[in-house]
Each structure stands twice: as structure tokens, then as C-alpha cells.
Predict the 3D structure of the following.
Amino acid sequence: MPKQKTHKGLAKRVKITASGKVKRKRCGASHLMNSKNAKRRRRLATATLVKGLKAKTMISQLAS
């Protein structure tokens, strides 16, 4: 059985934290910020964690 390759597109978009969780950027924060209120812009600036089965799938895709 060959070794599993790292999914390079995913590796550029997420990071694994020290405790093993998946950290990602929020979507919608790249442009058109004038129409979004200040509270929403602050929330978009922070990273968030991926939850559930999606996180488990991502970790397996990042295992090199």
C-alpha cells in the first residue's frame, strides 16, 4: 500500500493547532468590506476551528 499524500490545496488553507484541532480562516473577508458593519468585520478577521467529521477528514488529508 503506498503512503498517503498531503492534500496541498488544503495544507495552504488550514493549520493544525498544538492540541490537534484544525484552524481555518473565515470566508467573505477578502473584499467588499464597506457594506459590512464593524462587528461583522471584526468577526471575519478572527480564525475559527473546524468541528465534527469535517475536521477528522481534514486531519487525515493532511497526514503525510
